[in-house]
């Protein structure tokens, strides 16, 4: 197992009715900016619960944060923060709203030329305005980590930022909220969280037995509850296990002591930036080709994964590893998620070249767990995904 240092300061309030406890987590004198997305929280009752819990606070609202939080929209929210002298942010939404709030947390204290520089500088974010979250869509794990991804449509970029300064102070996780989520978004959440685990697990063996079992248990749980979540989102037990799996998939725990890949996300983000494809679906497009392209380097963990998660107990290491890839693709299909780029757009013929060029321009000359995936490799993987 590799050396590591681990700290996660986010408090979790999990379960039915936890929104009412918001006031215990926020200082009474706080002036709050409540951020949300397209307004679904006003239809599913979450908005009313939050407003009731914060009845004794001064709360200003900013809605309309889109999926793949858009930089220009966030700059409008930043003006509100500064003009209204906000001192606490509350994200009420899914990963996009939470990621946008993390950006605003850092941008509110940023003294550089333009907040976009925080994403291009590739430096850890060390300070931010305090914020909390009320999670309405399990998927990204953003409610308990210090990472965010922001989109800037005018230049077709989607870049990440992270650092200890943008951990949420607390997050409220009420599994009952998922009963009002559209099936497409539920499928995305299942695929997204599943892929988050794989990015930290399908690398190479390091003797981190407990970490492997942590990862495998999350994968097994997602596979087990997925049919029920898709058929009956009001099933509280399934919803609870789904929501907590999404959080555990990316709160930093399972990545300690092991290598991480994240090349799938790197390539997937480009497909979202170029074509507006849902984030989770870009991962499903890229992941099978990525594993097939890097089969020799990943086959030991792929075979282990096939055995422990999919119960593939016969065949050689190579046969089990190939079965693991096939089972993963089948899982995405079971959620109604297509796994070829040509199934999302007709304008794909130059995508591999475009992605390769973007990697080169950014200096991403070697990514993945070995730091050896080049822009030329990215081009080939994307082309395999057509």
Descriptive report:
The chain is α/β, with parallel strands linked by helices and about 375 residues long. The protein has two domains: about 10-175, Rossmann fold, CATH 3.40.50.1970; about 180-385, Dehydroquinate synthase-like, alpha domain. The protein is about 45% helix and about 10% strand. The protein is built from 14 helices and eight strands. The protein has helices spanning about 40-45, 45-55, 70-85, 95-105, 115-120, 185-200, 210-230, 235-250, 265-275, 280-295, 295-310, 315-335, 350-360, 375-385; strands spanning about 10-15, 30-35, 60, 90-95, 130-135, 145-150, 155-160, 170-175. It has a six-stranded parallel β-sheet with strand order 1-8-5-4-2-3, with helices on both faces. The model has no long low-confidence stretch (mean pLDDT about 95).
Can you give me a brief rundown of this structure?
The chain has 386 residues and is α/β, with parallel strands linked by helices. It contains 14 helices and eight strands.
CATH uppermost class of the largest domain: Mainly Alpha
Are there runs of 5+ residues with pLDDT below 50, and where? none
**Extended strand count:** 8
Corresponding CATH architecture of the largest domain: Up-down Bundle
Overall mean pLDDT stands at 96
Strand order across the largest sheet: 1-8-5-4-2-3
Could you describe the largest sheet, including whether it forms a barrel? 6 strands, parallel
Cα end-to-end separation: 37 Å
Portion of residues within helices = 40-55%
The assigned structural class equals: alpha/beta
Considering the protein shown, what is the CATH homologous superfamily of the largest domain? Answer: Dehydroquinate synthase-like - alpha domain
């Amino acid at each position: 197992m590799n050396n590591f240092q681990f700290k996660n300061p986010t408090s979790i309030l999990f379960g039915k009715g936890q929104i009412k406890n918001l006031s215990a987590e926020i200082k009474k004198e706080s002036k709050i900016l409540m951020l949300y997305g397209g307004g679904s929280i006003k239809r599913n009752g979450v908005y009313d619960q939050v407003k009731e819990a914060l009845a004794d606070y001064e709360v200003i609202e900013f809605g309309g944060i889109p999926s793949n939080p858009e930089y220009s929209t966030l700059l409008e929210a930043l003006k509100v923060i500064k003009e209204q002298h906000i001192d606490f942010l509350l994200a009420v939404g899914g990963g996009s709203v939470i990621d946008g709030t993390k950006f605003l947390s850092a941008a509110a204290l940023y003294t550089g030329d333009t907040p976009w520089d925080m994403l291009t500088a590739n430096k850890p974010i060390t300070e931010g305005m305090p914020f909390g979250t009320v999670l309405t869509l399990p998927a990204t794990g953003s409610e308990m980590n210090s990472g965010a991804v922001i989109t800037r449509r005018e230049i077709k970029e989607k870049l990440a930022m992270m650092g200890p300064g943008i951990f949420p102070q607390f997050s409220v996780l009420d599994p009952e909220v998922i009963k009002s989520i559209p099936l497409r978004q539920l499928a995305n959440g299942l695929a997204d969280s599943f892929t988050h685990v794989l990015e930290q697990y399908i690398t190479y063996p390091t003797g981190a037995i407990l970490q492997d079992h942590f990862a495998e248990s999350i994968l097994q749980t997602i596979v087990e509850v997925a049919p029920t979540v898709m058929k009956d989102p009001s099933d509280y037990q399934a919803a609870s296990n789904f929501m907590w799996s999404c959080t555990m998939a990316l709160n930093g725990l399972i990545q300690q002591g092991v290598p991480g890949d994240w090349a799938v996300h790197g390539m997937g983000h480009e497909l979202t930036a170029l074509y507006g494809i849902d984030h989770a679906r870009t991962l499903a497009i890229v992941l099978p080709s990525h594993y097939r392209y890097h089969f020799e380097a990943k086959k030991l963990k792929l075979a282990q994964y096939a055995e422990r998660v999919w119960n593939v107990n016969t065949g050689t290491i190579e046969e089990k590893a190939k079965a693991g890839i096939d089972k993963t693709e089948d899982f995405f299909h079971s959620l109604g998620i297509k796994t070829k780029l040509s199934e999302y757009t007709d304008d794909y013929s130059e995508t591999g070249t475009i992605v390769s060029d973007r990697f080169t321009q950014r200096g991403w000359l070697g990514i993945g767990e070995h730091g050896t995936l080049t822009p030329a490799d990215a081009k080939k993987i994307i082309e395999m995904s057509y």
